[in-house]
Amino acid sequence: MMRDTVTQGDNEMNNGKGRLVTWLFGFGAVLGTAMLVAGCAAPAPSGALARFDLGPPTMPVSAVAGANSAAGAAGANAPASDVAAASAQQLSPLKVVVNAPSWLDSDMIYYRLPASEGDQARVYANSRWLTSPARLFGDRLRASLSVDRVVLAAGDPAAAPALRVDLEEFAQYFDSTSASHGVVQVRATLFDGPKLLAQTTLRAQAPAATADAAGGARALATASDAVQKQLIQWLAGRVPAPSATTRAPAQSRALPATSSAGSSPVSASAPSR
C-alpha cells in the first residue's frame, strides 16, 4: 500500500515516469501533461527547489475569542471585572503531540494518481515543504488550540490532560490531469494521565485550484484547517480539568508515543463520546 510504496522515493518515481506520461496522454490533455511531467522530472539542484508551507495560521472563532472581542468592543474603559470574567472562560490546559509515519516526517510533497493507475504515492521532484507535514500541521494545530486554552509540550511537567494526533494522510489526489484535491486524515486520542478518554478519526479534503504542487499545497492547507476545526469541536466538553491521575510522578506523566517520526497503535480505544 501507500507507506510501502513511498519509501522507495524518487527512484521509483523516475522508474514510473514513462507510465505517468502514458496515463497523461491517454487523457489527451497536453497542458496537464506538461504540468505533471515537469513535477516528476529528474531532481533539480536544491537551489532550484520551490518551497511551500500551509500559509499563515487562521484562528478559529471560539467562545473565548468572542467574549474577548465583545469586551474590547465595549470600549477601552470597560470595567476590570468584565475583562476578568472573559479571561475566566479559558479552557483547561492541554498537552499536544503530533505523530506521523516516516514518509510524512520529511519535506517531500506527495501526490496520488487515479485509482486506475494503482495505489501509489509519488513525490514532486522540484517542490518541497519548508519542513515536514507533521511539523507544519502540529504548529498550526497548537496555534488554533491556543486561542482559548494553554497548550503545553508533551514533556511539560505541569499537570494536564494530553492530546495525541496521528497524521495518517497528507497528500494531493489527482482525479484527472486537470483536477485534484488535497486530503488530510488524522486519528486523535485524548488521555487523562494514563487513562484513555476518547478517540476519533477525522478526515477532510479540499479542491486544488491548479494541477501542480502549488495548488496541492493550498488545498492541503484548506483541508488541514477543516480537520483542525473538526478536532476542536470534538474536544469541546471532553477535556477534563487536571485530575489526580495527571499529578503522578514524572515517569507516569509521559504521553504515549511521543516520537514525531512514527506513530504506534493505541493499546485500547474508546468511541467518541
Question: Which SSEs are present, and which pair or pack?
Answer:
Layout: H1 2-6, H2 9-15, H3 17-27, H4 30-39, E1 50-52, H5 63-73, H6 80-87, E2 91-99, E3 108-112, E4 121-129, H7 133-145, E5 149-152, E6 162-174, E7 180-192, E8 195-207, H8 213-235, H9 250-253
Helix pairs in contact: 3-4, 5-6, 7-8
Keywords: Membrane, Transmembrane, Transmembrane helix
Region (Disordered): 242-273
Domain ABC-type transport auxiliary lipoprotein component: 79-230
Describe this structure in a few short sentences.
The protein is an alpha/beta fold and 273 residues long. The protein has nine helices and eight strands.
Question: Any overview of this molecule?
Answer:
This protein is of the alpha/beta class. The protein has two domains: 2-40 and 92-253, Rossmann fold; 64-89, no CATH class. Helix content is 34%, strand content 25%. It contains nine helices and eight strands. The chain has helices at residues 2-6, 9-15, 17-27, 30-39, 63-73, 80-87, 133-145, 213-235, 250-253, and strands at residues 50-52, 91-99, 108-112, 121-129, 149-152, 162-174, 180-192, 195-207. Strands 1, 2, 3, 4, 5, 6, 7 and 8 form an eight-stranded mixed sheet that branches. Helix 3 packs antiparallel against helix 4 (30-39) and helix 7 (133-145) crosses helix 8 (213-235). Mean pLDDT is 73; it is low at 1-44, 63-76, 80-88, 248-254 and 257-273. Keywords: Membrane, Transmembrane, Transmembrane helix. InterPro entries: ABC_trans_aux.
